[in-house]
Amino acid sequence: MVRLSLSYDMRAPDFGPPAEALYKAALEQCTWADERGWAQVGLPEHHASPDGYLPSPVVMATAIGARTQHLRISISLLLLPFYHPIRLAEDLAVADLVSGGRIDVMVGAGYREEEFDMYDADLHKRGAAMEEGILTLQRAWTGEPFEFRGRTVRVLPRPAQRPRPRVIVGGASPASAKRAARIGDGYAPIHPRLYEIYVEEMQRLGKPIPEGSGPVRTAGPSNVVAVSEDPERTWAAIMPNLLHDAEVYASWTGGRKGAMFKQVATAEEVRASGQYAVLTPDEALDAAKAADTFGFRPLVGGIDPDLSWASMELFAAKVLPQLETTR
Predict the structure, then answer these.
(1) Closest alpha carbon to 323 in 297, 276, 284
(2) What are phi and psi of 113, to 5 degrees?
(3) What is the pLDDT of residues 84-111, one digit of tens each?
(4) CA-to-CA distance for 207 and 264, rounded, in angstroms?
(5) Would you state the torsion angle of the CA atoms of residues 302, 305, 311, 315, taken in this order, to the nearest 10 degrees?
(6) Cα 241 from chain centroid?
(7) For residues 11 and 43, is the Cβ–Cβ distance under 8 A?
(8) What is the pTM of this model?
(9) Cα angle at 73 between 49 and 97, to 5 degrees?
């Protein structure tokens, strides 16, 4: 049994379709996938990006929740230091109610100075912001009064999920692993060693490892950008989008050791990096049967929606009937 997932970061570079067309396609694809057994859609967050990378995942999650019936909607990562935690608790509660209790939340501290400057936030105080934000969400969603910055507050309405949505901690440092063990509801780091630190800390605290914790997967069947009868032609058609996506991510991480995104400059390097997969229907079937999760990034880098739809529909016609899926 395999879980099918989607992911949208909504980049809209100047050389591609306008943002309006990409957002329309993303919402329509979520509705289409929901009707065909897909399990989850992921929505990341970034700011101060010239290609309009998704800055408002809670708004997008609410829109998807209103148009679907079954998809789990994972906001991952939500950059917690850029939010007032009480307002965020309210917005996420409404999103969860609109979706009927299908919102999943993964929070992160952020790392780009441009984003902290944009929000007049202190990069060096992001750890404290994470601590306050996680605890505030957890307390706010009880619906009971609690102390916040020296005064008593109460957040209503409560989310649909009971007792509340989980707050999963994402991270790229040992501090995030220990924070997740102390106050998080799970942990999803970018490196396996960080997960080992988390497990060690959970054992020290005498806590069980929550379901759904584990290192983030960045390649293989969770990073499919197209299914095609002619992969070479498809690679060529979407390569400008993939180059853009890879180059911007790499510029953000500065090429530092252990970064998730590799420095690439050519089409050959993009293909060799493993960051993207273009598969034939037979390859997609084999990969999906061997995986727990098979993930599409259908509009990555602002791929033309027509190309994206062709890929999704080919998968639905030739691969999906041969799969056993689970939500």
Answers:
(1) 284
(2) -60, -35
(3) 999 999 999 999 999 999 999 999 999 9
(4) 41
(5) 110
(6) 19
(7) no
(8) 0.95
(9) 115
